[in-house]
Write a structure and sequence with these properties.
InterPro entries: SAM, SAM/pointed_sf, SAM_domain-containing_protein. This is Protein aveugle isoform X1. Pfam families: SAM_2 (PF07647). The protein has 134 residues and is mainly α. The chain has a domain of 82 residues: Transcription Factor, Ets-1 (DNA polymerase, domain 1). Helices cover 58% and strands 6% of the residues. It contains five helices and two strands; from the N terminus they run E-E-H-H-H-H-H.
Length: 134
C-alpha cells in the first residue's frame, strides 16, 4: 500500500503519522507497486505490464471488472479470478476507510452541534441562567 507521511514542522516532538494514500489518487506507478505486492505470485505469467500498458490508475483499478481484465488480455480464468479477488479486497479496504472517515466527521459534527445547542439553551432559557443571591 502506498503511504503518505504528514508531520508538523512546528512541533518536532509529535510522532509522524502515516495514513495510506487514497486509492483513487494512486498513479500508475502506485498501482504497479500494489500489483507486485498483492498479485505477483498469482501466476508464472506476469500481468504487471498489462496494467502499465493500459495506464491503470487507482481510480481505474477501483472500477475494473472481470470483463475489463479479460479485455486487458488476462485470459486465464484462474489468474483473472485471483487478480479480481485482490481488486475486490482493495475496494473493501477503501470503502471501510471512507466509512470510518464519514463516521469521524459525523461524530465531530454531532459533538459541535450538541455543544452549540447546549450553550444556546443555557443562554436562552431563563430557568437555566445563574441566579444571583441577594
Amino acid at each position: 500500500m502506498v503511504e503518505e507521511t504528514s508531520g508538523s514542522t512546528q512541533n518536532k516532538t509529535k510522532a509522524k503519522t502515516t495514513r495510506p494514500k487514497a486509492v483513487h489518487a494512486w498513479t500508475v506507478g502506485d498501482v504497479l507497486k500494489w500489483y507486485r505486492r498483492h498479485c505477483a505470485d498469482i501466476s508464472q505469467t506476469s500481468y504487471e505490464q498489462l496494467f502499465a500498458k493500459h495506464d491503470i490508475t487507482g481510480r481505474a483499478l477501483l472500477r475494473i471488472t472481470d470483463i475489463t481484465l479479460q479485455r486487458m488480455g488476462i485470459t486465464n480464468n484462474c489468474d483473472r479470478e485471483a487478480i479480481w479477488r485482490e481488486i475486490v479486497k482493495q475496494r473493501l479496504k477503501t470503502d471501510i476507510l471512507e466509512i470510518r472517515d464519514m463516521e469521524r466527521v459525523n461524530m465531530h459534527y454531532q459533538q459541535a452541534t450538541h455543544t452549540s445547542n447546549k450553550n444556546t439553551n443555557l443562554r436562552g432559557n431563563p430557568s437555566c441562567t445563574q441566579r444571583q443571591i441577594p
